Amino acid sequence: MPKNPPRGDDRRAAIADAAIHLVATRGLRGLTHRAVDTEAGLPPGSTSYYLRTRDALLTACVSRMLERDLAAAPPAAAETDHGGSSEQTADLLSGMVLQLIRHRAEDQLARYELSLEASRRPELLDAITHGGRVLREHLAGLLGPLGIRDPEQVAWPFAAMLDGLLWDRVAGAGRTLSEHAFEAAVRRAVRALLEGFRTD
Questions:
Q1: Tell me: domain 1-52, CATH 3.30.1330, correct?
Q2: Which of 65, 132, 144, 160 has its Cβ near the most Cβ atoms within 10 Å?
Q3: What is the reported pLDDT for 198?
Q4: Range in 81-95, 103-117, 121-135, 181-195 with the lowest mean pLDDT
Q5: Which of 190, 24, 183, 2 is closest to 99 using CA atoms?
């Protein structure tokens, strides 16, 4: 156990991080309050103190991943100096997908586990739906300046297609691709999506 365990908000984040790791590596069957305490290096009972129920623990995982997603997301067009360039937006979105795979593959595995579980847990489904809405609103802010009509509407299928690339890489046939082949495929797919929606 660490000599100085995190406290307050840092402890909540440590609990959520440990829970995400457990879901990704052991599945939902391996997620217990006691296992999270051990994984996070916290005193027994810490997770139960902050997140008393299993629903609360699962929802905390979703909220933590949303926090990470927003931190890693490309800035909205209004916050950049690329003036709504389709090429640079494609590079930003492709880079985001590649970074999620290279540095946060566990988050993607946990996300899919939790998404399936959400079909049986209304509270968890609400959290996942909220997270998806927030991320798609951010994506719409990137698509609008490119001249894409109805960016809020387009953001939903666009995000679903990006999710498909992530899923295939961590859990599908895409795992067999070399790093170079996967990167090339992602960049080509994102550019094709942007061009297709711009000319629609």
A1: no
A2: 65
A3: 86
A4: 81-95
A5: 183
Burial annotation 58-78 (CB, 10 A radius, 16+ → b, else e): bbbbbebbbeebeeebbeebe
- The residues, ordered by sequence, that sit 6+ positions from 123 with a Cβ below 8 Å of its Cβ are 55, 59
For CA atoms 192, 170, 115, 103, give the dihedral sign.
Answer: negative
- Ordered by start, the domain boundaries in the chain are 1-52, 59-199
- What is the pTM assigned to this prediction? 0.88
Helices 105-118 and 122-143 cross at an angle (nearest 10°) of 130
Please compute Rg for the chain using Cα positions. Answer: 18
Q: pLDDT tens across 37-65, in order? A: 999 999 999 999 999 999 999 999 999 99
